[in-house]
Design the sequence.
């Protein structure tokens, strides 16, 4: 099989985001034949508005996101929790990628969700909402690839997740499960 392309979408836009660092660690775990790429530019995507979602004149940042999702074999989402739910930038990205209705680039796409927050709850509410939103958007959520990181402010205060052996093992497991789901969907 040719290279399996996994697109990572990070729900935190801040430069020092720990979710982003977890995504960077996941990039590093990709085995041969698998490429994990972090999508840059989620913060440039305008708020979804049906008035500007017009074939031929979709805003460039939204069109680029759709194209990147379409080109990916699987999606790997990294989700912090904002007020008990999914951050707006990530929800907005899924909304854009879910359209046109019934033919969006999320349709049938295997997707895994990793959540991470400073609380003990490990952003599980945001995780659950992201799974729901992805499912409604037509993605094929890979339940065996669920992963949660809690108290990340303390755990990753000193060390990047790529230097945390347990985190690397868990992230490698998520990438493995997602790639397996991609391969099964191709064989089906
Ligand atoms: C607007 C806002 C709302 C937040 N709400 C929650 C929350 O409901 N639950 C939680 O565990 N953390 C909450 N947090 C804290 C985040 O878990 C924390 O900022 C985390 O580090 C974000 O991930 P990042 O490091 O990838 O940016 C909130 C943070 C912000 C900025």
Sequence:
């Amino acid at each position: 099989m040719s290279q399996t392309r996994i697109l990572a979408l990070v729900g935190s836009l801040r430069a020092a985001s720990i979710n982003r660092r977890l995504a960077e660690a996941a990039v590093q775990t990709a085995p041969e034949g698998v490429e994990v790429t972090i999508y840059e530019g989620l913060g440039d995507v305008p708020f979804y508005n049906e008035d500007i979602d017009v074939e031929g004149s979709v805003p460039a940042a939204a069109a680029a996101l759709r194209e990147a999702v379409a080109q990916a074999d699987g999606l790997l989402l990294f989700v912090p929790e904002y007020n008990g739910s999914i951050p707006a930038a990530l929800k907005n990205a899924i909304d854009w990628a879910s359209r046109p209705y019934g033919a969006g680039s999320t349709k049938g796409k295997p997707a895994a969700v990793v959540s991470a927050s400073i609380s003990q709850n490990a952003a599980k509410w945001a995780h659950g909402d992201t799974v729901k939103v992805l499912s409604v958007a037509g993605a094929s959520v890979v339940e065996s690839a669920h992963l949660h990181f809690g108290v990340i402010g303390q755990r990753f205060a000193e060390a990047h997740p790529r230097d945390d052996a347990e985190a690397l093992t868990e992230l490698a497991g998520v990438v493995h499960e997602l790639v397996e789901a991609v391969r099964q969907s191709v064989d089906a």
User: Anything to note?
Assistant: The longest helix spans residues 165-187. The helical segments are 18-29, 60-71, 88-97, 124-136, 152-155, 165-187. The mean pLDDT is 96. The first strand starts at residue 4 and ends at 10.
